[in-house]
Amino acid sequence: MIIADEMKYTKTHEWVKTDGIKCYVGLTDYAQIHLGQIVFVDLPEVGDELGAGDQFAEVESVKAVSEVYTPVSGTVEAINEELLDNPAALNDDAYSSWLVLIEMTDAAETESLMSPAEYNELCEKLDEEAVH
Amino acid sequence: MNKTPLFEKHLECKGKLIDFGGWELPVEYSGIILEHEAVRNAAGLFDVSHMGEVIVSGEDAENYLQMMVTNDISGMEVSQIYYSPMCYPNGGVVDDLLIYKYNREKYLLVVNASNTQKDVEWLQSHLFGKTEIKDVSSEYAQLALQGPAAQKILQKITEKDLDEIKFFYFCDPVNIGGISALISRNGYTGEDGFEILMAHDDAPVLWDKLMAAGKEEGLIPAGLGARDTLRFEVCLPLYGHELEKEITPLEAGLGFFVKLNKDDFIGKEALIKQKDEGLKRKLCALEMIERGIPRAEYEVFAGDEKIGHITTGSYSPTLNKNIGLALLNTEFSAEGTIVEVAVRNKRVQAKVEKKPFYEKKYKK
To answer: At how many degrees (to 10) do helices B32-41 and B224-233 cross?
Structure first.
């Protein structure tokens, strides 16, 4: 499993990468591994207003439906349309396969998110629980 | 949780284990789609040891089974297998099962794992004449070797000429690599293949022998996930989805296995009445027109009217399409009808198609 250094992470397995008041949101490598081969992605529309904690996308494998939440509030400025036709790109590289680009209304919302080290700890803990 | 004798093999093969009706079984190993494709193009090996096995024996075994199931077993040959629903008096389904005939006084039933206890109680409570029921589920393990390369692989480790075992027939016992087993030509994938029933403790050895024999042909272990997508593409029903207490075999499109002209059987009256009055709902194949994957229990609409629900739905690896089986009001069941599936908070268009989605490739 890969945890990219330049991202921040959520407990619900999203990553965010900020650039000023712009923020890319995606699904972590841990999430794609646990979902299996992804066969469907549903994304919001450009211009949609999102609040922190809102569900904004669905990612589906053959067996499972997984909801994706945004940790930041703002407006959807772009969606990764390539994923609509090629959802398996999420399996190939979870960190280059961003889902949406959000123009944030409150950049401070990213401050409480997990660091790569903290997220790594969470994943290890979850894997350990799964074994026992 | 219950473990099959192949539990250690699943761990060795890095199976992703889940709780399947109280059984700890792999949903996938290398990936559902990879396993699905292996079975369609080469071969896959499934652990189906969780299935229940019940022996029905005694002088009156044939008459008794005739009363219990909807299919007509009077014409069955020795070593033949029949599929049949088993119904409640109201026509709803207790279970669907395979009946293996040894002779008129001995049959083996293979039933759905999660229904085993219910089935045994149901069968016990309707016993008559000189008939005995014995649940032997814990004594047996079962493997399913499925796919176009199945026969070639199995033939490598048995002297028995497998051409002699026709579709829906079995041979017992057969020596496979030193292990005594029951071999039948059948399965739950729509491909040619075999199911192998053996003593519980022999399963790990046979698993290894089959995996080794199938290496060149591309045999891989396959889990419950692929088993489900494979059976679903060829529209084989799964109890709890296409069949259940509130769904009759006629509604599920299994009229071929309901012989309304045979002597009395449980559910006969209700099923005759349903047929005479005309079916109010039918199991239909849906293909999504708009973006979305139908999933079990999603509601189906025509305008504002709810007209049914999805029984099974998934991405289809073979067709690369999103498809579903749905129990729909009959007036919306004609091919070409456009309906809407409620996928979460959206209505997504789908079209009624011909069943099955994928033609079975049985070797008959």
So the answer is: 50
